[in-house]
Amino acid sequence: MNNFWKEIASPIMALAPMEDVTDTSFRELVARVSDSACLHVLFTEFTAVDGMNHPVGKQRVSERLVVSQSEKKILKEKGIRLVAQIWGNKPEVFHKIAREITETYEFDGLDINMGCPVKNVVKQGACSALIDQPDLAREIVLATKEATHLPVSVKTRTGIRNHETERWISQLIETRPAAITLHGRTQKQQSDGLADWQEIEKAVLIRNQLAPEVPILGNGDVLSYGQAAAYTERYGLDGVMIGRGIFQNPWFFNSEHPERTKEEKLQLLQLHVRLFEQTWGDTKNFNILKRFFKIYTNGFAEASKLRAKMMDANSFNEIYELVGTQLENCFVD
Hints:
Elements: E1 12-15, H1 24-32, E2 41-43, E3 47-48, H2 49-52, H3 58-61, H4 69-78, E4 81-87, H5 91-104, E5 109-114, H6 119-122, H7 134-147, E6 152-157, H8 165-173, E7 180-183, H9 197-210, E8 216-219, H10 225-234, E9 239-242, H11 245-248, H12 262-280, H13 293-296, H14 303-311, H15 316-332
Parallel strand pairs: 1-9, 2-4, 3-4, 4-5, 5-6, 6-7, 7-8, 8-9
Helix pairs in contact: 1-4, 1-12, 5-7, 8-9, 12-15
């Protein structure tokens, strides 16, 4: 097994898997504006193994595993690894789909989602529900590892209703995953309250005793690269995974930190829309893009007015026209 996790010098920096966010177009965008020394690992959206195993639903679910040729080129140039994240609750299906993904695609690793807190997913006994089913969780990790030569990592949380970090991480680490990413909230918290980094530190101490070779990344409420690097050192981590912080700054993983101009923000927005259109055309809902508009339309005069117009748009061309007009004004100014 080629375990790339052990090849990356600390601090390891990763962009979290996010539903309807980390598709190939957004991943490529982030990779383009990031330094290879500051961004090491990207993840796909959550991919259901049951969906991949379904003769009818597979086509739609497999869209989460699409990697465009232009993304492949950028990742290869910068040495950024790409990991497919999968979820479910049946070891035999994990085994089957892990093998299929390994043989069909060109990912650098697989990651098992044991952290998603969404209630309808948890009710299925999947993702963060597995924290209270350690025997099943173990079977899933081992079945996945058996099916692939790729490194198999796990992303999880500190507990269901309360923090159970010591118990859960001790059990999880017995399976020797290639890496563990720990979000410092329980399932019950969802995204509320603050992530508890003291709990993440507990996981590091357990790792140090039981399996010092397993990298641990922390996750939760990290809003700048400087903060990520500081947390890595402060809590004895191997790295940090960034989630919502990317929405505040798509240049998060860039070593240069000047205040971005209106022109830079709008050009990046234009590129994002173009990449999305080139990849998906009309096969994906155009409105998915609207969740991103606030990233680029802030911090300049009348940004909110532009954003309101964009939220009313219904086509790629409308966005290009709105952004084009604004860029022309930049050059006039």
